[in-house]
Design a protein that fits this description.
Layout: E1 5-9, H1 13-22, E2 26-30, H2 36-39, H3 52-61, E3 66-70, H4 84-93, E4 98-101, H5 107-117, E5 122-127, H6 130-134, H7 136-139, E6 148-150, H8 152-158, H9 166-169, H10 172-183, E7 187-192, H11 202-212, E8 216-219, H12 232-255, H13 260-279
Helix pairs in contact: 1-12, 11-12, 11-13
């Protein structure tokens, strides 16, 4: 099995170079902002609001990694922003390899997204609404989806969960993963912290990716919050050490698949503990 594709969100060329050199597979420019602050108000979530200029800047920087760009949800032109067609055309013109569509609810939105991309980049719908989860069978019938991702933050919000990995413990991600595999679609879900960091340590989450057959994951702010670190050397040390630890843990995952079931049980227990702490 190939290693899991690691993705990191940044519009900083220096950080992008550090991440790429450390072995990150995709540099992720995040242009999504329409409706995001409203639905995630008060939550400690990433709201980047990168621009087309950032896409061009990172394209000029990245040499080996793929350039992934998250556009806005499907929308019409207004006085405040361009249409989805104009936005997606601009993203492609500036060299994106993969485009992610966030916060869709219907197959029609995914069809429109695929049509607008028109084979000029890989299409990556981000399944993060209750409607998309519950209508997954119909959405997966849409032709032209290259890969798919489950966004745990927004989907958790939709179901009123206080911790995003509840969806990993309650069988939601398992059910979707089975559907993706039947369609032969590469997929990923959520974010991952450093192997020994985060509320739910990354080593446990990584084993869940292997158990479910996931092949993509976003490196979270818990892995490296570059916006709060002034020293590029410190950022480089975090990336070099962190990616090396992930790749080392992957070797263990590949050689000891018998651990997956026990790991899932531990994950469920830890999720329950975290939820109880939050209630208390």
């Amino acid at each position: 099995m190939e290693h899991i594709k690691l993705m990191y969100i940044t519009n900083n060329p220096d950080v992008a170079t550090i991440a790429e050199n450390a072995g990150v597979d995709r540099i992720f420019v995040d242009m999504e902002y329409i409706g995001k602050s409203l639905r995630q108000g008060g939550m400690d979530t990433v709201q980047s609001h990168h621009t087309l200029e950032d896409v061009a800047r990172i394209r000029a920087t990245v040499k080996k990694a793929e350039l992934l760009v998250r556009c806005n949800p499907i929308h019409e032109k207004t006085a405040d922003h361009s249409s989805s067609k104009e936005e997606i055309d601009g993203i492609i013109e500036r060299g994106a390899d993969v485009i992610m569509l966030p916060y869709f609810k219907t197959p029609k939105e995914v069809e429109q997204f695929v049509r607008l991309v028109d084979g000029r980049a890989k299409t990556l719908p981000l399944m993060e609404t209750a409607e998309a989860n519950e209508g997954a069978d119909e959405i997966l019938q849409v032709d032209g989806i290259d890969e798919i991702y489950v966004g745990l933050n927004d989907m958790s919000l939709a179901y009123g969960h206080r911790f995003m990995f509840k969806l990993l413990a309650d069988g939601t991600v398992d059910r979707l993963a089975e559907k993706f595999q039947k369609k032969g679609l590469p997929f990923g879900f959520g974010g991952i912290a450093a192997m020994h960091g985060g509320l739910l340590p990354g080593s446990y989450v990584l084993k869940e990716h292997y158990r479910l057959g996931s092949s993509r994951v976003i490196l979270s702010r818990s892995f490296c919050n570059a916006a709060k670190i002034d020293s590029l050397q410190e950022i480089e040390e975090i990336f070099q050490k962190g990616v090396q630890e992930i790749r080392g843990q992957e070797l263990l995952c590949q050689t000891a698949p018998q651990d997956y079931v026990q790991n899932h049980r531990i994950v469920c227990e830890k999720v329950d503990e975290i939820l109880q702490m939050q209630r208390g």
